[in-house]
Specification:
alpha/beta, 16% strand, single chain, binds cytidine-5'-monophosphate, TIM Barrel
Length: 237
């Protein structure tokens, strides 16, 4: 079975992140580095984690004019990350430019292009808040619309809530990757996550990769926690 777990390294210190990466690298598919860790530890940490052989998902959610996003994506490709995020609401041209920059830079370096993932509607936004920023209609409608636009722009993957996976699978090509956070097992604390599924349920619904943070990195034994989650996936096969 393919291991679908990316662990979110939502810790402030490079050394803590590296220790987690070293102890977990044989139990997971890779590690997600977000804004806090990247702003404090920088590209050097990405290189150090890549040096352990682990895959990296650089979750910086780029949102800017197409030229600027394309250059940031090219820089991420040079860091040799395997996945990265952009905001789909940056528009068709921005998504096209990001995907082209990933393909062209990777081709020039002779390596596979990373998966550029579109982020649709932030899960922290409620429907009235979405309407407040000028988007009429429902969150679900806006997610579907942005995913469709992303597919038209040549995007090969999206980030979504686990509860959106089954519906999106009916709208997108089978090869399109869906990456989902919000994974919680029956015994896990939900924390600030409100709409969750277990790892097995998310994979069953059609998720390609799972981003799991606190249930692994905050566990007393992170490696055992990762292996327990993996075992629930293996039972399905
Ligand atoms: O600790 P937890 O498993 O909730 O971590 C989930 C990770 O996925 C965090 O890094 C969080 O920022 C990220 N994420 C999320 N929901 C989104 C987008 C990203 O939980 N909609």
């Amino acid at each position: 079975m393919r291991n679908p777990i990316y662990v979110a390294l939502d810790v402030p210190l490079a050394e803590t992140a590296l220790q987690l990466a070293q102890s977990l690298s044989s139990s997971v598919a890779g590690f997600k580095i977000g804004k806090e860790l990247f702003v404090s530890a920088g590209p050097d940490l990405v290189r150090r984690i890549r040096d352990t052989g682990a895959s990296v998902f650089l979750d910086l959610k780029f949102h800017d004019i197409p030229n600027t996003v394309a250059k940031a994506v090219a820089a991420a490709v040079r860091l040799d990350v395997q996945m990265l995020t952009i905001h789909a609401c940056g528009g068709l041209e921005m998504m096209r430019a990001a995907e082209a920059a990933a393909q062209e830079t990777a081709h020039a370096l002779g390596r596979p292009a990373p998966l550029v993932l579109g982020v649709t509607v932030l899960t922290s936004l409620s429907n009235p808040e979405l309407n407040q920023v000028g988007v009429a209609g429902s969150i679900g409608h806006q997610v579907d619309r942005l995913v469709q636009l992303g597919v038209d722009a040549g995007m090969r993957g999206f980030v979504c809530s686990p509860l959106e996976v089954a519906n999106l699978r009916t709208l997108i090509p089978e090869s399109t990757a869906l990456v989902t956070p919000g994974i919680r097992g029956p015994g896990d604390a939900a924390g600030d996550q409100k709409r969750t599924l277990s790892a097995a349920e998310a994979i069953e619904a059609g998720a390609t990769w799972l981003v799991i943070g606190r249930p692994i990195y905050a566990a007393a034994d992170p490696r055992a926690a990762a292996q327990r989650i993996l075992a629930t996936l293996e039972q399905r096969v």
